[in-house]
Amino acid sequence: MWTSAIILALLCLRGGWATQLLCHGDIEGTAIKQLQINYLVGKINKPIDIGFQSTEGILEYKDFKYLGLLPGNQPFSLFDEKYHKEAKHVLKLLLKAKDFEHFLETAEVLLERVNEDLLYYCLSVAVLRRNDTQGLRVPPVQTVYPDKFFKIDIIKKMKKMADVAHKISPNMGQMFDASKTSINYINKNDLNYFLEDIGMNSGHYQWHVLNPAIWWKPEDYDRKGERFYWMHKQMVNRYDAERVSNGMGPVKPFINWEEEILDGFAPELRIDKQEYRYAYRPRRLVLKDLDYLTKSRMMMWEQSLTKAILGGMALTNNDTLVDLNNEHGIDVLGELVESSATSVNRNLYGNLHSAIHVMTAKITDPNGIHDATYGAMYDVATSARDPLFYAWHKYINRIFELHKDQLPPYTKEELEFKGVKVTNFTINGSEKNVIRTGWEVDLFPVSKGFTFTKKSIMGIKVKHLQHEDFTYTIEYENSGPVKQGIVRIYAVPYIEVYRKMSFNQLRKTIIELDLFVTTIQSGKNTIQWSSKASNIVQSKDSIFRTTINIKGRPWPHCYCSWPDYLLLPKGKKEGMPMAMVVTINDWEEEKVNQERGCRCSKAASYCDIDRKMPFKRALGFPFDRRAVATSFTEFKTSNMGRAFVKLQFTGETHYSY
Ligand code: CUO
Q1: Position with higher pLDDT, 244 vs 30
Q2: Which residue of 140, 467, 578, 587 could cross-link 484, Cys pair, CB 3.0 to 4.6 Å?
Q3: Which mutation among 383, 390, 607 tests ligand 1's pocket best, with the greatest number of atoms within 8 A of CB?
Q4: Angle in degrees, CA 142, 461, 603, rounded to 5
């Protein structure tokens, strides 16, 4: 008992996990619950005979309504409205279970009766929302569905290796080197290192777990619609930054519903247990009507959205009007565009964003005549692998930008921080204003029991982008008393293609690097801030390891947010010039007072679930609104600074396992 008390006391000093423990107050109980969840989820996507369980005392006859609509042999898509009723129903059953034991029993019973991918998604949401599962995590999607992340050739090789290895040495872990096969992009100027990145794709999936479109109570989430806009805008901007790193221009937005889609895409992914192979999309196909969804209907939704934006008002289901031209308008609009169950009027504004995921995924067999599978755009876990994702989301961004353009530019008073002047801003990698990037090889563990791992664990060597650690040095003068300041840091890839842009175009390309609160001392002072402390990223350990980390503690960030190793784009061998911009604003003006909760405590601008967004200003402030200024020099107030850095891609590979 004393030992437990001492451990608890020590852990209480350690931040996130300590907060979670204090929410439970029971270390052993929490660990056992986590193992029970792991055990349950460990049955998903594995060829295990689950056995048919009695529903007595768990489900009632009426609960079976909607169950089993989604066939068991296909992936669940949060984008496909056809299955929202079932997903919502399953989620409600998981939420209403009276205690943790009953919750597990309900999940076990559902496992036999609903599509397991759908159940996995609902379990992930339920564990975040239930009071008795606070601080616990469902194992991340890349560990439950490795075959949604590793291409068929890797899975096949793993399978072969597992067969041979098991015969030679049962129960012994095996190592498979994928860094030299499928993800062998080292000498190529293609973008697979980004499109196929495990952390990027799983972070995107997890964003949709943390911000579920099927959730019905708007009061449970703060600024979810705005987060939808911002997180996806960041994905597009980051993709563009990788494109320019590799000598390409920014992606062209999807524009015309009747035009050919120039890019084809072969996902080369197969959910092995179900033998479900994601469909290939040849080049130059044109979108086609589905039997329940026509392009003309989608164009009408788009027109209704445009009309609402230009008129500054959205019409609700109850025939009332909601003002869009204020700081909450982006939130209302995000819910309308996604669209989520909390859209103020789904009849009028439809489901534009999600529907296109489905329509593009079904482009080769729109009405299912050939019983073909769907493309990668169908599944949240795989959609961001397809280049079309970024063209489509850029088109969606334009809708949001049209809205932002209706808002008045920020005034000087709104931009500045009285008395605070940034006098110098520099970035230091191993050299001043130069940051080096390269490859890193990590080990990704695949648990045993999949069709491709049989009875032994497999470690897959995976190569991903990495950058050296760097430090922001912000020198400032404060003519007033000591204050708290909120610091925002953005990057703007500053190469030729962007130089031709106007300031108002350029500000839309920013990449968020960090956002933190710090003390602003009186007089002259300096903030030294490490890239390692970035608040918008999750550590690579949380991506390449499973639920319990090396110290036996779950991660405090819900597996959402951007991988730390992709904080910066790749850059170029000769060095890619990039600007970084810092702003310091008055924390007093925008802090949101609230108690810290027990759920996720990182990456507020992407993922935070538990509480209100901890700051008031818009995501992307101060570059989210149109500016009168024609250059940064003209735009900047004294609380802002800019530095120019070079991103130098070394091509070297570092092994870190
Ligand atoms: Cu996350 Cu289109 O919403 O992908």
Answers
A1: 244
A2: 587
A3: 383
A4: 45
Q: What percent of the chain has pLDDT over 90?
A: 71
Q: How far is the CA of 170 from the centre of ligand 1 (A)?
A: 41
**pLDDT higher than 90, residue 13:** no
Q: How far away, in angstroms, is 194 Cα from ligand 1 center?
A: 16
601-633 pLDDT per residue, tens = 566 667 766 667 888 999 999 999 999 999 999
- d(Cα 543, Cα 449) in Å, to the nearest integer? 20
Whether the bond into 339 is cis, omega within 30 of 0: yes
Write down the pTM of the prediction. Answer: 0.93
Beta bridge partners of 648: 436, 572
- The single-letter DSSP state of residue 284 is T
Rg (CA), the chain: 25
Question: ω into residue 622 within 30 of 0, thus cis?
Answer: yes
Q: Which atom of ligand 1 is nearest to the CA of 235?
A: 1
> CB of 433 within 8 A of CB of 149?
no
Task: Tell me how crowded residue 260 is: count the other CB atoms within 10 A of its CB.
Answer: 11
Name the more confident of 418 and 3. 418
Q: What distance in Å separates the CA atoms of residue 153 and residue 23, rounded to the nearest whole number?
A: 44
Q: How many residues does the chain have?
A: 657
Strand 523-530 relative to strand 483-493: parallel, antiparallel, unpaired?
A: unpaired
Q: Which atom of ligand 1 is nearest to the CA of 208?
A: 1
Q: Which of 401, 428, 120, 387 is nearest to 263 (CA)?
A: 387
Residues lining ligand 1, judged by CB closer than 6 Å? Answer: 204, 208, 232, 353, 357, 383, 393
Dihedral Cα 333, 338, 344, 348, nearest 10 deg: 100
Tokens of 18: 């300590």
Whole-number Å distance, alpha carbon 632 to ligand 1 midpoint, is: 31
CA distances from 592 to 44, 483, 587, 613 (A): 40, 16, 9, 7
Residue 520 and residue 407: Cα distance in Å, rounded? 31
Residue 402 has pLDDT above 70, yes or no: yes
Mean pLDDT calculated for residue range 407-416? 97
249-261: pLDDT as tens digits: 999 998 889 999 9
The amino acid sitting at 527 is: I
pLDDT of residue 547: 47
pLDDT digit string, tens, across residues 573-584? 999 999 999 999
Q: How far apart are CA 631 and CA 504, in angstroms?
A: 8
Token duo for residue 492: 């703007």
Mean pLDDT of 461-480: 96
Q: How confident is the model at residue 598 (pLDDT cuts 50, 70, 90)?
A: low
Mutate which of 393, 394, 399, 606 for ligand 1? The one with the most ligand atoms within 8 Å of its CB, which is: 393
